[in-house]
């Protein structure tokens, strides 16, 4: 009998990847906080995880024509521009550094939680394999 890692890890493998992609977007926002015209980006984690879950279960969209855009254009399909909470400062930049820092910290904590969960699953598998 073989071990199915898809069954063992479930959606948590995709969650770690999505958290990493969101961290990159948020870090890019912080790096461009003083760039005129830069628009803050974010990842809709719930939509991205739902898309990953449906793709995992085999219900993904198919590209039926050469004219259709490919699924990957560098950003996750659930990534987009965030509506600013503050009025325009005159330079067109929509990054609020305090909001970005808070979102980055929250995402980092959730990333660590996902890693700890996966570590526990791996430890459980190792215990089962060793027969302890």
UniProtKB/TrEMBL annotation:
GO biological process: bacterial-type flagellum-dependent swarming motility
Species lineage: Bacteria, Pseudomonadati, Pseudomonadota, Gammaproteobacteria, Enterobacterales
Self-association state and partner proteins as the record states: The basal body constitutes a major portion of the flagellar organelle and consists of a number of rings mounted on a central rod.
Keywords: Bacterial flagellum, Cell projection, Cilium, Flagellum
Family affiliation: Belongs to the flagella basal body rod proteins family.
InterPro entries in the cross-refs: Flag_bb_rod_N, FlgB
Function recorded in the entry: Structural component of flagellum, the bacterial motility apparatus. Part of the rod structure of flagellar basal body.
Residue ranges of domain Flagellar basal body rod protein N-terminal in the record: 12-39
Protein's name according to its UniProt entry: Flagellar basal body rod protein FlgB
